Amino acid sequence: MNIIRIAMSELIGMFIDDGSLAAFSLILVIVVAGAVKLLALPPLIGGLLLLLGCLAILVYSVRRAVKR
Predict the structure, then answer these.
(1) Has residue 26 been placed in a domain?
(2) Most buried of 13, 22, 40, 57 (most Cβ within 10 A)?
(3) Is 12 part of any domain?
(4) Cα–Cα–Cα angle for 14, 15, 17, nearest 5°?
(5) Transmembrane helix: present as a keyword of the record (predicted)?
(6) Domains of the chain: total
(7) Which domain does 56 fall in, by range?
């Protein structure tokens, strides 16, 4: 039973290793989707913002992990 618990925690850890990474990504998606829908931002610009935002969040997360 202990092996199953360890395997499940490792599996979950692969996807939710850094809570701030997931939170920032979720906030980015919500903000960009809102901008596309409410502010009539062209979808191509919204996609570009998502790409650049995700890259920026990833760089931030990696830098923080290196400092630890």
Answers:
(1) yes
(2) 57
(3) no
(4) 70
(5) yes
(6) 1
(7) 19-67
Question: What DSSP line would sit under 28-56, residue for residue?
Answer: HHHHHHHHHHHS---HHHHHHHHHHHHHH
Give the separation between CA 23 and CA 44, rounded to whole angstroms. Answer: 23
Give the rounded distance of the alpha carbon of 50 from its chain centre.
10
Six-digit token string for 43: 């979808």
HSE (side-chain half, CA atoms, 13 Å) at 47: 3
Give the CA count within 13 Å in the CB-facing half-sphere of 63: 6
13-46: per-residue pLDDT in tens? 766 666 788 889 999 999 999 999 999 999 999 9
Q: Does a structural domain hold residue 56?
A: yes
Question: Per-residue pLDDT tens for 9-19?
Answer: 877 776 666 67
